[in-house]
Design goal:
It is a single chain. This protein is α+β, with helices and mostly antiparallel strands. The protein is elongated, with a radius of gyration of 35 Å. The chain has 2 domains: about 5-260, no CATH class; about 280-450, Glucose Permease (Domain IIA) (Distorted Sandwich). The strands form 3 sheets. Strands 3, 4, 6, 7, 8, 10, 12 and 13 form an 8-stranded antiparallel sheet that branches. The chain has a 3-stranded antiparallel sheet with strand order 5-11-9, with no helix packed on it. The protein has a two-stranded antiparallel ribbon with strand order 1-2. It has helices spanning about 5-10, 20-35, 80-115, 120-185, 185-195, 195-270, 275-305, 310-315; strands spanning about 60, 65-70, 330, 350, 360, 365-370, 380-385, 390-395, 395-400, 405, 410-415, 430-440, 440-445.
């Protein structure tokens, strides 16, 4: 009951003894509003049962863990919450230190990228990227630890708030039972059973005091419930962020493996020869440029051909879904840590997928290209409405043919990417799916289109 309403009721005498119409209504409304068990009993109510329960003041530490100023039985002590807060602050300080080291490695990489391209230079860049990604892993692990500690603190606070809520509900129930019992006694009965008028008026005054206690305790229960819901919401948000960080961590571990694989292959393919390195770089660039030109030319030709095809026009708006079950990203769009960035930009995202994973069409469309390049770079390109096209690279096996329509979710190929296997090509860094979204031939960030 709001404070204004309680004061107004007191002034009008609604909660006085003998008013048998309003008290039961108020009684039942409060019981249902605060989930209080309605049990009428003639048992006398002890004074300690109806003592008011003030709302505890709570302070929030820098770590976001709330510390109760009045610890009670079953509640977390200030010491335990302060210890959690201390650990969280230590982890956050560690993250800041790691971020400084990451910035230093990024600076080294930028300097190396401005130097003349050479085998030694490229290996140095890879080494710096490898160390930088290892630090990324450490930072993410520390962030994960922070979230776990915050969730632990919130669990403790939620348990304490639930205990306070239960205790307040019991006390409010006791007050309401006392009101109900008093309501059954008329003014005449009270007057006849009291030895003096002073006792009679004292009894009436106790009813007014009881109404004040009910108002205070009602407000207390409401505030405790609001605080409890807030803490549960905060826990849910941190739990969701923790799940997201775990996916990020998986992607970072994959990047570490890719950098190591790239360095090993680079050394093996060049045999520490600068001449062989430059020949390798030249071949990689040629393959990349040829693939890009092929994708661009075929898309233009096919889209012009489909302008008059009703079946294509009736496919509807291109709404994309994930082409493989995994949501772990090994390399992002224009990823600064992409192993071949010294030669060309990464025009899509690499999604973790085991060798031979079924690849599904991200949206309905027309198979414009299904290229089996043997041990080279094999891929599928689907043209969609609205000027969009999707590319699925490093496929180990094609399951569709050119000049056919596919629906969203249709299996079009099997993933590949393991170096030295069919369809992997020269840019492979391990099993994954290279996925692109293009608009009018221009590559865009696929994560902007995926749910």
């Amino acid at each position: 009951m709001d404070m204004e309403l309680r004061i107004e009721n007191r002034e009008r005498g609604i909660l006085r003894t003998g008013n048998k119409k309003t008290l039961p209504i108020i009684f039942f409304v409060l019981c249902s509003l605060f989930s209080i068990p309605f049990v009428l009993t003639s048992r006398p109510v002890a004074a300690e049962e109806v003592s008011s329960t003030p709302v505890k003041s709570e302070s929030t530490t820098s770590s976001g863990v709330s510390a109760s100023s009045t610890p009670e039985s079953g509640e977390p002590s200030n010491e335990s919450l302060k210890e959690l807060s201390r650990k969280i602050d230590e982890k956050k300080a560690k993250i800041k230190d790691i971020e400084k080291d990451i910035a230093a490695y990024n600076k080294n990489i930028q300097v190396k990228q401005t130097e003349q391209l050479s085998l030694a230079n490229q290996i140095s860049i890879i080494d710096n990227r490898l160390e930088k990604i290892k630090l990324d892993v450490q930072a993410t692990e520390a962030e994960t630890d922070v979230l776990k500690l915050e969730i632990k603190g919130l669990d403790s606070q939620i348990t304490a708030a639930q205990s306070r809520l239960t205790a307040s509900q019991k006390k409010l129930s006791a007050l309401l039972r006392q009101v109900s019992m008093r309501d059954r006694t008329s003014y005449v009965e009270i007057l006849l059973t009291r030895p003096t008028f002073s006792d009679f008026f004292n009894d009436l005054r106790s009813v007014q005091d009881l109404s004040v206690d009910i108002g205070d305790l009602t407000r207390s229960v409401r505030l405790v419930k609001e605080n409890l819901e807030s803490q549960r919401k905060a826990k849910g948000e941190r739990t969701q962020k923790l799940l997201e960080l775990k996916k990020v961590l998986e992607g970072q571990h994959s990047k570490v493996d890719e950098q190591r694989e790239t360095k090993s292959r680079l050394i093996a393919d060049t045999r520490n020869s600068e001449l062989k390195f430059h020949k390798l770089v030249s071949n990689l660039r040629v393959v990349y440029q040829q693939t890009e030109a092929e994708i661009s030319d075929i898309e233009k030709t096919i889209r012009k051909k489909l302008e008059s095809v009703d079946k294509f026009k009736n496919l509807g708006e291109a709404i994309f879904t994930w082409p493989v079950p995994s949501r772990v990203i090994n390399a992002t769009f224009h990823d600064p840590d992409y192993p071949y960035r010294s030669f060309f930009e990464h025009s899509g995202i690499d999604i973790r997928a085991g060798q031979g994973t079924a690849i599904q069409a991200a949206a309905p469309g027309y198979i414009a290209r299904a290229r089996d390049a043997g041990m080279g770079y094999s891929y599928v390109m689907i043209v969609h409405t609205g000027g969009y096209a999707t590319v699925y690279g490093h496929v180990s096996r094609l399951l569709v043919k050119e000049d056919q329509f596919v629906g969203r979710g249709d299996v079009i190929a099997l993933s590949g990417g393991r170096p030295g296997t069919s369809g992997a090509g020269p840019f492979a860094t391990g099993p994954h799916l290279h996925f692109e979204v293009r608009l009018n031939g221009i590559p865009l960030n696929p994560l902007d289109f995926l749910p």
